[in-house]
Amino acid sequence: MSSILNHLEDQVLTLTIHRLERKNAFTGEMYAALAQALSDAATDPLVKVVLIQGDPTVFSAGNDIEDFLHQPPAGEEAPVFRFLRGISTFPKPLLAAVAGPAVGVGTTMLFHCDLVFAGDNVALSMPFVNLGLCPEAASSLLAPRLMGYHRAAEALLLGEPIMAEAALEAGIVNRVLPPTEVNAYAQTQARKLAGKPLNSLVETKRLLKASSAAQVQAVMSEEGAIFGRMLREPAAKEAFAAFLEKRRPDFSKL
Ligand code: COA
Q1: What are the chain's domains?
Q2: Of 243, 245, 246, 224, residue with least CA distance to 131
Q3: Is 19 in the pocket of ligand 1 (CB under 6 A)?
Q4: Would the CB of 93 count as within 6 Å of ligand 1?
Q5: Do 205 and 93 meet the contact criterion of CB atoms below 8 Å apart?
Q6: How large is the average pLDDT for residues 147-151?
Q7: Which residue, of 33, 52, 78, 172, has the fewest CB within 10 Å?
Q8: Ligand 1: which of 21, 23, 126 to mutate, judged by most atoms within 8 Å of the beta carbon?
């Protein structure tokens, strides 16, 4: 069974991340499936809204660490970059329902969503520095813009999770709900949007994002080049090995 489940109903395409045995960590195949679904949905007249959701216990553990080690993304056409371009340029309303841990891209993808609903168990984290990496998905631009510089620096330098109340206060989620109600609430809001005229939704979203659209792509591309290089450097290799060996990384010589 695929780890990305697609369900179309009432003009809402729901994409469910479903790889619970690995805490919904993303593989290249999953990015490719999401990129394809978004690309198809952008032009499909039967789709007005897309909702991305996880499980009430976990949204996503971010990129699969074994994949980072053995199949690091190479070049701008790598599935992860196609996915990031897909969410950052998706023309129709894009919603997310997030509960439990959302690590790395599990958090940075939310900055591209129009509405984000969160479980009260949510833990949003961007531990790139702890992994010897740097921000991706234009998070170095969007995190300070959405949360303010100091909160963004705290999240991106220390890599500590932002819990539900702080996420709501920082304005990076719209509403906090009990974890088992998040997906259903997001679905209700998605269907509300699907009842509205598509052209108005699309033009409104385009205008909301217009001032930063080019900059987002430029920053994402710059981050992607640095991230790709850092994935192959000693700090990241040590961090990935430590994760897989279930020990603390030793950066003392790095
Ligand atoms: N890549 C590959 N495997 C992962 C993974 C990832 N990103 N995240 C979790 N897993 C695996 C674990 O190794 C573990 O495997 P095992 O059963 O063979 O031991 C299994 O999924 C369950 O994870 P576990 O850590 O035991 O679950 P938890 O509930 O205690 O913690 C997380 C959940 C998400 C907080 C934790 O798994 C985590 O921090 N993951 C790594 C996140 C990360 O650094 N991602 C990269 C971001 S750029």
Answers
A1: 1-176+205-254 (3.90.226.10)
A2: 243
A3: no
A4: no
A5: yes
A6: 97
A7: 78
A8: 23
- Give the ligand 1 atom nearest the CA of 244: 13
pLDDT over 70 for what percent of the chain? 100
In this predicted structure, the answer to whether residue 59 has a pLDDT above a threshold of 80 is yes
224 pocket-lining for ligand 1 (C-beta < 6 Å): no
Phi, psi for residue 122 in degrees, rounded to 5: -70, 145
CA quadruple 196, 202, 203, 208: dihedral positive or negative?
positive
Contacts of residue 209, defined as CB under 8 A and 6 or more positions apart, other chains included, come to: 216
Closest CA to 69 of 247, 249, 241: 241
**Does position 102 have pLDDT exceeding 90, yes or no?**
yes
| Ligand 1 atom closest to Cα of residue 125 | 47
Banded pLDDT at 136 (limits 50, 70, 90): very high
Q: Would you tell me how many other CB atoms lie within 10 Å of the CB of residue 201?
A: 18
The model's pTM: 0.98
E strands in 120-221: 123-125, 162-163, 175-177
Question: Could you tell me the two tokens for 231?
Answer: 């994935």
For residues 94 and 224, give the distance between their C-alpha atoms in angstroms, rounded to a whole number: 23
Distance CA 239, CA 31 (A): 23
| Lowest-pLDDT choice from 36-40, 74-78, 189-193 | 74-78
CA distance 80 to 104: 12
Residue 23 near ligand 1, beta carbon < 6 Å: yes
Per-residue b or e along 75-95, where b marks 16 or more CB atoms closer than 10 Å to that residue's CB: eeebbbbbbbbbbbebbbbbb
